[in-house]
Amino acid sequence: MSTTTATRTAAPARTLACSVTGAAVVALDGTVLTLAQPELQRDLHTGVAQVQWTGTGYLIAVASLLVLAGRLGDRHGHHRVFALGSLGFAAVSAAIALAPDIGTVVLLRVLQGICGALLQPATLGMLRTTCPPDRLTGPLALRTGAIGLAAAAGPLLGGALVSAYGWRAVFLLGVPPTLAAGLLALTVRGPRRAEGPPRARAGGDPLGALLLAASLGLLVHGLVTLPHPGAGGRAAVTLAASAAAALALVRHERRAADPLLPPALLGSRPVAAGLGALLAASAALFGTLFVLTYFLQETQRLDPLDTALRLLPLAALMVGGAALCPPLTRRFGPRTVAFAGGALLTGGVLVLARLDTDAGAVATGTGAALLGAGFVTLMVTATAAVVRHAPEAHAGVAGGLQQTAMNTGPALGTATAALLLALVPAGGFVPARGAALPVLALLAALTLPAALALPAATGGRGPGTRRSAAHRALRPFCVRS
Question: What is the pTM of this model?
């Protein structure tokens, strides 16, 4: 093998390793922190409200900056932005483990959210600019499987670390992989970017970035605040402010010479359909898990480990289903596969909506398995549609929008579930007696029309793409992964 061929093979291999590691660490961080919060509260002698901001502050920072971070990747190189985000994530994680008080922890979690926003869109942008569009499904499926595995391992690993070493060990967990991934990304020379118009290279769209950040940040804050007792009025004002910022953004983007959200991207039917499917699917999944967790622990009195075991089929189907998505998509096409995923997800929510106080492990496991199979199918297929049909010059923005949908959806689903649980208190946390899961099933069903708007077949290339000789040389790697 020549030096040139070896370099072409090594670069995408390193890119895939960075993408998978970055996505998995972010997923792991979200699941292990939940178990660390009670211990953190006791150790730092603080209240529940302050501890909740360790999650809320991070979420708002991430949601506000994902698209802007993707735009930075499009302009300056996804590998560079990924390296900056990963190394920053590692440094801030280590600093949180040494934090002396809750105020410092919250501030550092916001900084960690900024770093997370930098690396998340780049995990998709790097793949889009390295692999040909029609060979993206395999790498994306591997990335999704790693996310599922990390999310499944998070509660068990987090519980073990907190029990043995305390809450600070949870934050140290992410330091080695993000440090290694960041350093590895610095060794990869990203593909050359096409030169844009002079104004685009110099000016950008700072007002659009500010309006988008304000709209998304206020939206997430309003959704997180909405279920809290007595916070309805404050949440309504926050959501109204988010809507006003969104309207101002739409008006500004129509007039901007170099808009943050390119019309070529938002006008793509597969991109819009994929984003809609991801938003609805993630909202339905996380809203359902919110209800189900309280049902298993508060009504059926299961401990956290038994609860995790009841939900194990969800994680197993997410990991195993990711490997089946590429061949199914090649055989039946994105539209059919995504529609089947939406049907499985909706069916899973409906099965769980029938659970009563005496529901056993089989009924719960069946619903959880349908949730996992449906969600992973939609996630791989819809993400592939968003990334593949985005012009290569806007791969980072597309990745930012995909990550925005995946971060906003859980906040929307959890807020919806919590609000419905409060409005129908007679049912308690029993799914069969409440209204939360039936409404979430309707939300899951919105993925079906979105799936029908996806392409029927995988043939062809996304808009604005040009398959270069280097891309053709990378094709065997992308097939194997």
Answer: 0.81
Question: Which tokens sit at 479?
Answer: 């097939």
Please, are residues 190 and 79 in contact by the beta-carbon 8 Å criterion? yes
Helix axes 469-480, 3-44, angle to 10 degrees: 60
- Who contacts 378 (Cβ-Cβ below 8 Å, separation ≥6)? 277, 278, 281, 338, 341, 342, 345, 447, 451
**What are 317-371's pLDDT values in tens digits?**
988 888 888 899 989 999 999 999 999 999 999 999 999 988 889 999 999 999 9
114: number of Cβ within 10 Å: 18
Give residue-wise pLDDT tens across range 80-91. 999 999 999 999
pLDDT 10s digits, 407-437:
888 888 888 888 888 777 766 788 888 889 9
Token pair 């280097």 in the structure block, residue: 470
- Reference 470, options 4, 1, 3, 2; nearest CA is 4
Amino acid identity, position 361: A
pLDDT at 415: 84
Q: What's the CA gap between 455 and 336, in Å, rounded?
A: 9
**Block residue for tokens 């391992």:** 153
Per-residue pLDDT tens for 111-167? 999 999 999 999 988 988 888 777 788 888 888 888 888 877 777 787 788 878 888
State which amino acid sits at residue 23: A
- Interatomic CA distance for residues 480 and 241, integer angstroms: 47
224 pLDDT band (50/70/90 cuts)? confident
Contacts of 202-209 with CB under 8 Å at 24 or more apart are 203/257, 203/258, 204/71, 204/75, 204/258, 204/260, 205/253, 205/256, 205/258, 205/259, 205/260, 207/252, 207/256, 208/249, 208/252, 208/253, 208/256, 208/259, 208/260, 208/261, 209/67, 209/68, 209/71, 209/260
Q: How confident is the model at residue 192 (pLDDT cuts 50, 70, 90)?
A: low
Q: What is the distance between the alpha carbons of residues 197 and 233, in angstroms, rounded to a whole number?
A: 46
